[in-house]
Design brief:
Layout (H helix, E strand, L loop, with lengths): L3 E5 L29 H13 L4 E4 L8 H8 L7 E6 L6 H15 L3 E5 L5 H6 L6 H19 L4 E4 L4 E5 L11 E4 L6 H7 L2 E5 L3 H15 L5 E11 L2 H13 L3 H12 L4 H10 L6 H4 L1 E3 L2 E2 L12 E5 H14 L3 E5 L3 H11 L1 H6 L13 E3 L5 E4 L10 E2 L3
Parallel strand pairs: 1-2, 1-13, 2-3, 3-4, 4-7, 7-8, 8-9, 9-12, 9-13
Antiparallel strand pairs: 5-6, 10-11, 11-12, 14-15, 15-16
Protein backbone atom coordinates (compact mmCIF):
# COMPACT_ATOMS: atom_id res chain seq x y z
CA UNK A 1 0.00 0.00 0.00
CA UNK A 2 1.80 3.13 -1.25
CA UNK A 3 1.35 6.71 -0.09
CA UNK A 4 -0.30 9.16 -2.51
CA UNK A 5 0.65 12.80 -1.97
CA UNK A 6 -1.46 15.81 -2.94
CA UNK A 7 -0.91 19.54 -2.45
CA UNK A 8 -3.39 22.46 -2.14
CA UNK A 9 -4.32 25.50 -4.24
CA UNK A 10 -5.05 28.53 -1.99
CA UNK A 11 -7.78 30.10 -4.12
CA UNK A 12 -8.71 32.51 -1.33
CA UNK A 13 -5.19 33.93 -1.13
CA UNK A 14 -1.82 33.05 0.32
CA UNK A 15 0.89 34.56 2.49
CA UNK A 16 3.56 34.06 5.13
CA UNK A 17 0.96 34.04 7.90
CA UNK A 18 -2.11 31.86 8.34
CA UNK A 19 -4.68 33.12 5.84
CA UNK A 20 -8.12 32.71 7.40
CA UNK A 21 -10.82 31.05 5.35
CA UNK A 22 -14.33 30.92 6.71
CA UNK A 23 -17.57 29.92 5.08
CA UNK A 24 -20.02 32.19 6.89
CA UNK A 25 -18.27 35.57 7.07
CA UNK A 26 -15.06 37.18 5.95
CA UNK A 27 -12.37 37.13 8.59
CA UNK A 28 -11.02 40.22 10.30
CA UNK A 29 -7.45 38.97 10.10
CA UNK A 30 -4.63 40.23 7.93
CA UNK A 31 -5.38 40.26 4.23
CA UNK A 32 -3.70 37.73 1.99
CA UNK A 33 -0.40 39.12 0.78
CA UNK A 34 -0.56 37.05 -2.39
CA UNK A 35 -3.78 37.31 -4.34
CA UNK A 36 -5.03 34.09 -5.95
CA UNK A 37 -4.59 35.22 -9.54
CA UNK A 38 -4.13 32.55 -12.17
CA UNK A 39 -0.40 33.23 -12.61
CA UNK A 40 0.37 32.72 -8.92
CA UNK A 41 -1.83 29.63 -8.70
CA UNK A 42 -0.05 28.30 -11.78
CA UNK A 43 3.27 28.67 -9.96
CA UNK A 44 1.93 26.57 -7.09
CA UNK A 45 0.46 23.96 -9.43
CA UNK A 46 3.75 23.72 -11.29
CA UNK A 47 5.68 23.46 -8.01
CA UNK A 48 3.39 20.61 -6.92
CA UNK A 49 3.90 18.85 -10.24
CA UNK A 50 7.66 19.45 -10.12
CA UNK A 51 7.87 18.00 -6.62
CA UNK A 52 6.04 14.80 -7.44
CA UNK A 53 2.61 15.45 -5.96
CA UNK A 54 -0.14 13.48 -7.68
CA UNK A 55 -2.78 16.20 -7.48
CA UNK A 56 -3.88 19.44 -5.85
CA UNK A 57 -7.05 20.02 -3.85
CA UNK A 58 -8.95 23.13 -4.91
CA UNK A 59 -11.44 24.28 -2.24
CA UNK A 60 -14.99 25.52 -2.59
CA UNK A 61 -16.68 28.37 -0.75
CA UNK A 62 -17.85 31.97 -0.93
CA UNK A 63 -14.40 33.46 -0.44
CA UNK A 64 -12.63 31.12 -2.89
CA UNK A 65 -12.38 31.34 -6.64
CA UNK A 66 -14.60 28.76 -8.36
CA UNK A 67 -12.79 25.41 -8.34
CA UNK A 68 -14.06 24.13 -11.71
CA UNK A 69 -13.09 27.25 -13.65
CA UNK A 70 -9.78 27.80 -11.86
CA UNK A 71 -8.50 24.29 -12.37
CA UNK A 72 -9.68 24.16 -15.98
CA UNK A 73 -7.59 27.29 -16.60
CA UNK A 74 -4.57 25.55 -15.07
CA UNK A 75 -4.75 22.43 -17.24
CA UNK A 76 -2.73 24.14 -19.96
CA UNK A 77 -0.14 25.31 -17.41
CA UNK A 78 0.59 21.77 -16.18
CA UNK A 79 1.23 18.39 -17.80
CA UNK A 80 0.49 15.50 -15.45
CA UNK A 81 -0.92 17.08 -12.29
CA UNK A 82 -4.43 15.98 -11.32
CA UNK A 83 -6.98 18.40 -9.89
CA UNK A 84 -9.05 17.42 -6.87
CA UNK A 85 -12.02 19.71 -7.52
CA UNK A 86 -14.21 20.45 -4.50
CA UNK A 87 -17.87 21.17 -5.14
CA UNK A 88 -21.20 21.07 -3.32
CA UNK A 89 -24.00 18.78 -4.44
CA UNK A 90 -26.68 21.16 -3.20
CA UNK A 91 -25.99 23.86 -5.79
CA UNK A 92 -26.09 21.86 -9.05
CA UNK A 93 -28.10 18.92 -10.32
CA UNK A 94 -26.49 15.45 -10.30
CA UNK A 95 -26.97 15.14 -14.06
CA UNK A 96 -25.15 18.42 -14.70
CA UNK A 97 -22.37 17.41 -12.31
CA UNK A 98 -21.97 14.09 -14.14
CA UNK A 99 -21.82 15.96 -17.46
CA UNK A 100 -19.27 18.50 -16.19
CA UNK A 101 -17.06 15.75 -14.78
CA UNK A 102 -17.25 13.69 -17.98
CA UNK A 103 -16.33 16.72 -20.10
CA UNK A 104 -13.52 17.71 -17.74
CA UNK A 105 -12.13 14.18 -17.83
CA UNK A 106 -12.01 14.20 -21.62
CA UNK A 107 -10.44 17.63 -22.07
CA UNK A 108 -7.91 16.96 -19.29
CA UNK A 109 -7.17 13.42 -20.51
CA UNK A 110 -8.02 11.87 -17.19
CA UNK A 111 -6.74 14.44 -14.68
CA UNK A 112 -9.93 14.96 -12.64
CA UNK A 113 -10.52 13.89 -9.04
CA UNK A 114 -13.76 14.90 -7.29
CA UNK A 115 -14.10 16.14 -3.71
CA UNK A 116 -17.77 16.18 -2.72
CA UNK A 117 -18.39 18.73 0.07
CA UNK A 118 -21.80 18.40 1.69
CA UNK A 119 -21.43 21.66 3.63
CA UNK A 120 -21.42 22.24 7.37
CA UNK A 121 -22.21 25.94 7.68
CA UNK A 122 -25.86 26.89 7.52
CA UNK A 123 -25.18 30.56 6.81
CA UNK A 124 -23.19 29.82 3.69
CA UNK A 125 -25.52 27.09 2.48
CA UNK A 126 -28.42 29.55 2.57
CA UNK A 127 -26.32 32.07 0.67
CA UNK A 128 -26.35 29.57 -2.20
CA UNK A 129 -30.07 28.91 -1.83
CA UNK A 130 -29.79 25.72 0.22
CA UNK A 131 -32.11 25.60 3.24
CA UNK A 132 -31.82 21.95 4.25
CA UNK A 133 -30.53 21.09 7.71
CA UNK A 134 -27.30 19.21 8.39
CA UNK A 135 -28.61 15.64 8.25
CA UNK A 136 -30.87 16.33 5.29
CA UNK A 137 -27.87 17.61 3.34
CA UNK A 138 -26.10 14.28 3.79
CA UNK A 139 -29.24 12.37 2.77
CA UNK A 140 -29.34 14.51 -0.37
CA UNK A 141 -25.65 13.85 -1.04
CA UNK A 142 -26.35 10.13 -0.86
CA UNK A 143 -28.99 10.44 -3.60
CA UNK A 144 -26.80 12.82 -5.59
CA UNK A 145 -23.88 10.40 -5.75
CA UNK A 146 -26.20 7.50 -6.57
CA UNK A 147 -27.47 9.39 -9.62
CA UNK A 148 -24.01 10.60 -10.70
CA UNK A 149 -22.52 7.11 -10.62
CA UNK A 150 -25.54 5.67 -12.42
CA UNK A 151 -25.28 8.30 -15.17
CA UNK A 152 -21.59 7.53 -15.61
CA UNK A 153 -22.53 3.95 -16.44
CA UNK A 154 -23.49 5.19 -19.90
CA UNK A 155 -27.11 4.04 -19.66
CA UNK A 156 -30.13 6.39 -19.28
CA UNK A 157 -31.15 6.69 -15.63
CA UNK A 158 -34.57 7.06 -14.05
CA UNK A 159 -34.57 7.89 -10.36
CA UNK A 160 -37.11 9.20 -7.86
CA UNK A 161 -35.96 9.98 -4.33
CA UNK A 162 -36.70 12.41 -1.55
CA UNK A 163 -34.42 15.10 -3.01
CA UNK A 164 -33.93 14.30 -6.71
CA UNK A 165 -36.12 13.05 -9.51
CA UNK A 166 -34.66 12.48 -12.97
CA UNK A 167 -35.88 10.73 -16.08
CA UNK A 168 -33.59 9.47 -18.83
CA UNK A 169 -30.56 11.20 -17.29
CA UNK A 170 -27.48 10.58 -19.43
CA UNK A 171 -24.30 12.14 -20.82
CA UNK A 172 -22.64 12.27 -24.23
CA UNK A 173 -20.15 9.59 -23.19
CA UNK A 174 -19.13 8.04 -19.90
CA UNK A 175 -15.92 9.47 -18.41
CA UNK A 176 -12.83 7.38 -18.94
CA UNK A 177 -11.47 6.83 -16.41
CA UNK A 178 -14.33 7.41 -13.98
CA UNK A 179 -13.15 10.12 -11.56
CA UNK A 180 -12.67 8.82 -8.01
CA UNK A 181 -14.90 10.45 -5.41
CA UNK A 182 -13.31 11.88 -2.26
CA UNK A 183 -15.72 12.52 0.58
CA UNK A 184 -15.44 13.76 4.16
CA UNK A 185 -17.65 14.12 7.20
CA UNK A 186 -17.43 13.08 10.84
CA UNK A 187 -21.08 12.98 11.87
CA UNK A 188 -23.35 9.96 12.22
CA UNK A 189 -25.18 11.22 9.13
CA UNK A 190 -21.98 11.44 7.08
CA UNK A 191 -20.20 8.15 7.78
CA UNK A 192 -22.81 5.82 6.20
CA UNK A 193 -22.81 7.96 3.03
CA UNK A 194 -19.02 7.71 2.86
CA UNK A 195 -19.21 3.95 3.32
CA UNK A 196 -21.73 3.59 0.46
CA UNK A 197 -20.48 6.15 -2.05
CA UNK A 198 -16.87 7.28 -1.54
CA UNK A 199 -13.74 5.92 -3.15
CA UNK A 200 -11.61 7.85 -0.65
CA UNK A 201 -12.82 8.87 2.80
CA UNK A 202 -11.06 12.07 3.88
CA UNK A 203 -10.64 13.28 7.44
CA UNK A 204 -8.99 16.37 8.83
CA UNK A 205 -5.72 15.80 10.67
CA UNK A 206 -6.79 14.61 14.08
CA UNK A 207 -4.34 12.67 16.27
CA UNK A 208 -3.68 9.15 14.99
CA UNK A 209 -5.83 7.43 17.64
CA UNK A 210 -8.86 9.49 16.61
CA UNK A 211 -8.20 8.89 12.92
CA UNK A 212 -7.93 5.16 13.60
CA UNK A 213 -11.32 5.22 15.32
CA UNK A 214 -12.91 6.92 12.29
CA UNK A 215 -11.31 4.50 9.87
CA UNK A 216 -12.64 1.61 11.91
CA UNK A 217 -16.17 2.96 11.86
CA UNK A 218 -16.18 3.57 8.11
CA UNK A 219 -14.67 0.15 7.39
CA UNK A 220 -17.34 -1.51 9.50
CA UNK A 221 -20.10 0.37 7.68
CA UNK A 222 -18.58 -0.35 4.26
CA UNK A 223 -18.38 -4.09 4.85
CA UNK A 224 -16.94 -5.78 1.77
CA UNK A 225 -17.04 -2.58 -0.30
CA UNK A 226 -13.45 -1.36 -0.94
CA UNK A 227 -12.66 2.14 0.28
CA UNK A 228 -9.39 4.06 0.73
CA UNK A 229 -8.58 6.60 3.41
CA UNK A 230 -6.94 10.01 3.30
CA UNK A 231 -6.03 12.79 5.71
CA UNK A 232 -5.90 16.56 5.20
CA UNK A 233 -3.01 18.32 6.94
CA UNK A 234 -0.70 21.31 6.81
CA UNK A 235 3.04 20.80 7.00
CA UNK A 236 6.05 22.70 8.34
CA UNK A 237 9.11 20.64 7.50
CA UNK A 238 12.70 21.86 7.86
CA UNK A 239 16.23 20.48 8.01
CA UNK A 240 16.03 20.41 11.82
CA UNK A 241 13.20 20.14 14.31
CA UNK A 242 14.21 23.44 15.94
CA UNK A 243 13.91 25.27 12.62
CA UNK A 244 10.47 23.84 11.98
CA UNK A 245 9.12 24.76 15.41
CA UNK A 246 10.53 28.26 15.02
CA UNK A 247 8.47 28.60 11.84
CA UNK A 248 5.39 27.44 13.73
CA UNK A 249 6.16 29.98 16.43
CA UNK A 250 6.33 32.76 13.81
CA UNK A 251 2.84 31.83 12.60
CA UNK A 252 1.57 31.93 16.18
CA UNK A 253 3.25 35.25 16.98
CA UNK A 254 1.52 36.84 13.98
CA UNK A 255 -1.94 36.12 15.43
CA UNK A 256 -3.76 38.80 17.36
CA UNK A 257 -5.83 37.66 20.39
CA UNK A 258 -8.87 39.56 19.09
CA UNK A 259 -8.45 37.82 15.74
CA UNK A 260 -8.39 34.41 17.45
CA UNK A 261 -11.44 35.23 19.58
CA UNK A 262 -13.40 36.35 16.51
CA UNK A 263 -12.37 33.25 14.59
CA UNK A 264 -13.34 30.90 17.39
CA UNK A 265 -16.74 32.54 17.74
CA UNK A 266 -17.43 31.78 14.09
CA UNK A 267 -15.96 28.29 14.11
CA UNK A 268 -17.86 27.18 17.20
CA UNK A 269 -21.10 28.16 15.46
CA UNK A 270 -20.46 25.70 12.62
CA UNK A 271 -22.80 22.72 12.30
CA UNK A 272 -19.87 20.62 11.10
CA UNK A 273 -18.98 17.85 13.56
CA UNK A 274 -15.51 17.71 12.01
CA UNK A 275 -15.06 21.43 12.68
CA UNK A 276 -16.05 20.99 16.31
CA UNK A 277 -13.50 18.18 16.63
CA UNK A 278 -10.86 20.56 15.25
CA UNK A 279 -11.84 23.28 17.74
CA UNK A 280 -11.68 20.79 20.63
CA UNK A 281 -8.01 20.09 19.89
CA UNK A 282 -6.85 23.58 20.84
CA UNK A 283 -9.80 25.04 22.73
CA UNK A 284 -9.16 28.45 21.20
CA UNK A 285 -6.40 29.06 23.74
CA UNK A 286 -3.65 31.20 22.24
CA UNK A 287 -1.89 31.41 25.62
CA UNK A 288 -0.78 27.76 25.49
CA UNK A 289 2.22 28.74 23.38
CA UNK A 290 3.59 26.96 20.37
CA UNK A 291 4.49 23.63 22.04
CA UNK A 292 1.38 23.75 24.23
CA UNK A 293 -0.64 23.36 21.03
CA UNK A 294 1.15 20.12 20.12
CA UNK A 295 -1.69 17.60 20.44
CA UNK A 296 0.38 14.55 19.45
CA UNK A 297 4.16 14.36 18.90
CA UNK A 298 4.75 16.48 15.80
CA UNK A 299 1.05 17.34 15.29
CA UNK A 300 0.37 21.03 15.91
CA UNK A 301 -3.13 22.54 16.29
CA UNK A 302 -2.11 26.21 16.10
CA UNK A 303 -3.39 26.81 12.58
CA UNK A 304 -6.92 25.94 13.67
CA UNK A 305 -6.95 28.93 16.03
CA UNK A 306 -7.93 31.11 13.09
CA UNK A 307 -8.44 28.87 10.07
CA UNK A 308 -11.63 26.97 9.37
CA UNK A 309 -11.43 23.41 8.13
CA UNK A 310 -8.07 21.67 8.37
CA UNK A 311 -6.40 23.13 11.45
CA UNK A 312 -3.43 20.91 12.23
CA UNK A 313 0.09 20.71 10.84
CA UNK A 314 2.90 18.18 10.77
CA UNK A 315 5.84 20.02 12.33
CA UNK A 316 9.41 18.81 12.61
CA UNK A 317 12.52 17.80 10.77
CA UNK A 318 12.03 16.10 7.43
CA UNK A 319 12.64 12.74 9.12
CA UNK A 320 10.16 13.48 11.93
CA UNK A 321 7.46 14.52 9.46
CA UNK A 322 8.10 11.36 7.46
CA UNK A 323 7.78 9.36 10.70
CA UNK A 324 4.35 10.84 11.42
CA UNK A 325 3.18 10.20 7.87
CA UNK A 326 4.32 6.62 8.30
CA UNK A 327 2.39 6.43 11.59
CA UNK A 328 -0.82 7.47 9.81
CA UNK A 329 -0.01 5.11 6.95
CA UNK A 330 0.27 2.19 9.39
CA UNK A 331 -3.34 2.92 10.40
CA UNK A 332 -4.50 2.54 6.80
CA UNK A 333 -4.17 6.10 5.48
CA UNK A 334 -3.01 6.03 1.86
CA UNK A 335 -3.63 9.58 0.65
CA UNK A 336 -2.27 12.79 2.18
CA UNK A 337 -3.63 16.19 1.11
CA UNK A 338 -1.03 18.67 2.35
CA UNK A 339 -0.48 22.43 2.39
CA UNK A 340 1.60 25.10 4.09
CA UNK A 341 2.16 28.85 4.30
CA UNK A 342 3.19 30.09 1.82
CA UNK A 343 2.04 27.24 -0.41
CA UNK A 344 4.67 27.86 -3.08
CA UNK A 345 7.70 27.62 -0.81
CA UNK A 346 6.32 24.87 1.41
CA UNK A 347 5.71 22.64 -1.63
CA UNK A 348 9.49 22.69 -2.15
CA UNK A 349 10.37 22.19 1.51
CA UNK A 350 8.22 19.06 1.64
CA UNK A 351 8.96 17.85 -1.87
CA UNK A 352 12.71 18.13 -1.49
CA UNK A 353 12.91 17.23 2.19
CA UNK A 354 10.28 14.64 3.06
CA UNK A 355 9.32 12.99 -0.22
CA UNK A 356 12.72 11.35 -0.87
CA UNK A 357 12.67 9.92 2.66
CA UNK A 358 9.27 8.36 2.01
CA UNK A 359 10.63 6.92 -1.22
CA UNK A 360 13.66 5.45 0.57
CA UNK A 361 11.30 3.79 3.06
CA UNK A 362 9.38 2.18 0.22
CA UNK A 363 6.22 4.20 0.87
CA UNK A 364 6.01 5.74 -2.61
CA UNK A 365 5.18 3.77 -5.73
CA UNK A 366 8.28 5.15 -7.47
CA UNK A 367 11.15 7.41 -6.54
CA UNK A 368 11.40 8.68 -10.11
CA UNK A 369 10.37 12.32 -10.28
CA UNK A 370 7.97 13.52 -12.97
CA UNK A 371 10.69 15.90 -14.15
CA UNK A 372 13.52 13.40 -13.95
CA UNK A 373 15.38 11.30 -11.37
CA UNK A 374 16.44 12.88 -8.11
CA UNK A 375 19.93 13.10 -6.64
CA UNK A 376 20.02 13.03 -2.84
CA UNK A 377 22.54 13.43 -0.07
CA UNK A 378 22.89 10.71 2.62
CA UNK A 379 20.17 12.37 4.72
CA UNK A 380 17.69 11.98 1.87
CA UNK A 381 17.52 15.66 0.96
CA UNK A 382 17.22 16.32 -2.76
CA UNK A 383 20.33 18.17 -3.86
CA UNK A 384 19.62 18.23 -7.58
CA UNK A 385 17.20 17.23 -10.30
CA UNK A 386 18.19 15.57 -13.55
CA UNK A 387 16.24 16.60 -16.67
CA UNK A 388 14.31 13.75 -18.24
CA UNK A 389 16.75 11.79 -20.38
CA UNK A 390 19.57 14.04 -19.21
CA UNK A 391 23.04 13.59 -17.82
CA UNK A 392 23.33 13.89 -14.00
CA UNK A 393 26.11 16.44 -14.56
CA UNK A 394 23.43 18.74 -15.99
CA UNK A 395 21.28 18.60 -12.87
CA UNK A 396 19.63 21.75 -11.57
CA UNK A 397 20.70 22.53 -8.00
CA UNK A 398 19.32 24.56 -5.16
CA UNK A 399 16.21 25.11 -3.07
CA UNK A 400 14.13 28.29 -2.88
Amino acid sequence: MSVVLHWFLPTSGDGRTVVERFHANRSLGAAALREPDVDYLAQIAQAAEHNGFTGVLTPTGTWCEDAWLTTAALLARTSTLKFLVAFRPGVISPTLAAQMAATYQRISRGRLLLNVVTGGDEVEQRRFGDWLDHDQRYARTDEFLHVVRAVWSGRPVDFAGSHYRVSGATVLAAPDPVPPIYFGGSSDAALPVAARRADVYLTWGEPPAQVAEKIGRVRELAGDRPIRFGVRLHTISRDTSAEAWREAEKLLEALDPAQVARAQEQLRASQSVGQQRMVALHGGDLSRGVRGLEVHPGLWAGIGLVRGGAGTALVGSHSEVADLIEEYHDLGVEEFVLSGYPHLEEAYWFGEGVRPLLARRGLLASSTHVNGPELSDPAGRITARVPLGGDPREAVHGRP
